């Protein structure tokens, strides 16, 4: 394998070694370079021997630099290779339940262990070989694994992949080699909840302390499931039962290892109508990105922000649009804020997800068309707050490809996307924009 160098950072170790755009990187310290992991791993040393090819001739450079300093070469793509897609057809796959016609990148089913290490993506391990796992172990890469179940037959069925059960042995191999794994379980009522979930958590617990955390997240079902495996969503009773099954392992793990190991996504508490756990329950919020503890963290941060906030801006009315699940949390925050600042009124409007179906209740999947349709006849006051999760990470574009400016124009109101950060949240409610 070899990779084309597309650029070299000015004054970098590679530039000092006269490596140029157009060269082909052949090896570093005698190791062929196939992708970004090889590049990062083998170039970490302070003495680095780099072989490149230029005009058909190999050229060796010995580069001295600080350990872990980047050599400064640029490549066509971040991975220096094609992104790997999954080889499954999971019965709960959200991508299979999306309507046609959305932006192409939303349909890409990535399952790439390299992105798991570099960006925190979850991988199923089904497209990996023993050699790939040995490489992960040798490079000491802590990755995030979509486990779903440790029952091999059930895993094959849930992932519609006859190798999915066998690949569970990789979890054990990685944990026993000392790697720390974050895991997730997409939980489907009647399929991998109840005793199956108990079994999965018991099996993962047997790998402690090498399981860093496990998130149990509820399956999401859209209205576009025609022809797919029949699935149900959680109701108050099944959500409460799931919280109780999870609590058994949490208790055991806390006593022996000082960590709960496994956490239920916020949606379980909201669906069950149970109080959200306190902040210290979530420890260091290891599964925050997976929707575990977002509500508690927001509540606690708004409480802290309220202790130091000042407001003398006169009467102010703000609307906050959110998914139906978290509306109860935002309404509670709105009450707290107006108790502290009687001039400030925060109206919370839960948006029904008509685009994907009303069983989708999270804020991050609300589209511009639902916002416009459900807010256009309301008095939105001075400003509309929406969750930043409704937009692409790097552009103010909604899931249905509408631009934030179009929604602003349609609704005729200032719109401020707000992060799940209590201080930013309160500043935006109070109209304090730095
Ligand atoms: S691993 Fe399963 S859930 Fe993930 S993208 Fe592939 S089919 Fe969908």
Which structural traits does this protein have?
binds iron/sulfur cluster; alpha/beta; 18% strand; globular; 15 strands; 5-stranded parallel sheet; single chain; 434 residues; 6-stranded antiparallel sheet
Classify the secondary structure makeup into a structural class.
alpha/beta
User: What radius of gyration results from the CA coordinates?
Assistant: 25 Å
Mean pLDDT over the full residue set? 95
Largest sheet: 6 strands, antiparallel
Bound molecules: iron/sulfur cluster
Number of strands: 15
- What is the number of helices? 14
- Low-confidence runs (pLDDT<50, min 5 residues)? none
Question: What distance lies between the first and last C-alpha atoms, to the nearest angstrom?
Answer: 50 Å
Shape: globular
Helical content (DSSP H or I, runs of 4+): 25-40%
Q: Which band does the percent of strand residues land in?
A: 15-25%
Element order: H for helix, E for strand: EHEEHEEEHEHEHHEHEHEHHEHEHEHEH
Can you describe this structure in just a few lines?
By secondary structure, this protein is α/β, with parallel strands linked by helices.
């Amino acid at each position: 394998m070899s990779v084309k160098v597309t650029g070299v950072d000015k004054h970098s170790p590679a530039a000092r070694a006269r490596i140029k755009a157009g060269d082909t990187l052949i090896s570093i310290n005698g190791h062929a370079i196939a992708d970004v992991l090889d590049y990062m791993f083998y170039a970490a040393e302070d003495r680095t021997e780099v072989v490149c090819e230029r005009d058909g001739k190999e050229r060796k450079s010995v580069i001295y630099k600080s350990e872990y300093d980047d050599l400064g070469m640029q490549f066509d793509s971040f991975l220096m290779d094609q992104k790997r897609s999954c080889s499954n057809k999971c019965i709960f796959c959200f991508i299979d339940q999306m309507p046609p016609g959305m932006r192409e990148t939303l349909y890409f089913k990535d399952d790439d262990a390299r992105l798991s290490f570099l960006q925190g993506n979850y991988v199923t391990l089904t497209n990996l070989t023993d050699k790939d796992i040995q490489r992960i172990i040798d490079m000491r890469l802590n990755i995030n694994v979509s486990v779903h179940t440790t029952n091999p037959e059930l895993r094959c069925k849930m992932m519609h992949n006859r190798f999915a059960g066998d690949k569970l042995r990789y979890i054990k191999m990685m944990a026993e080699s000392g790697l720390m794994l974050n895991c997730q379980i997409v939980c489907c009522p009647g399929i991998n909840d109840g005793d199956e979930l108990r079994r999965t958590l018991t099996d993962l617990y047997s790998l402690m302390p090498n399981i860093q955390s496990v998130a149990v997240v509820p399956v999401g079902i859209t209205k576009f499931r025609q022809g797919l495996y029949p699935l149900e969503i959680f109701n108050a009773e099944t959500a409460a039962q799931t919280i109780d099954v999870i609590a058994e392992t949490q208790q055991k793990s806390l006593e022996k290892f000082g960590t709960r190991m496994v956490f239920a996504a916020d949606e379980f508490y909201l669906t069950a109508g149970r109080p959200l756990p306190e902040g210290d329950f979530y420890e260091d919020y290891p599964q925050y990105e997976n929707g575990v503890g977002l509500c508690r963290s927001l509540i606690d941060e708004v409480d802290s922000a309220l202790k130091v906030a000042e407001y003398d801006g006169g009467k102010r009315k703000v609307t906050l649009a959110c998914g139906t699940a978290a509306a109860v949390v935002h309404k509670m925050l709105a009450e707290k804020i107006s108790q502290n600042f009687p001039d400030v009124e925060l109206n919370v409007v839960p948006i029904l997800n008509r685009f994907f179906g009303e069983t989708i209740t999270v804020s991050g999947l609300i589209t511009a068309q639902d916002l416009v349709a459900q807010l256009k006849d309301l008095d939105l006051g001075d400003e509309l707050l929406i969750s930043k999760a409704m937009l692409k990470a790097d552009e103010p574009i909604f899931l249905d490809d509408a631009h934030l400016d179009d929604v602003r124009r349609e609704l005729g109101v200032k719109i401020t996307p707000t992060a799940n950060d209590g201080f930013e949240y309160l500043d935006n409610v109070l109209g304090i924009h730095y």
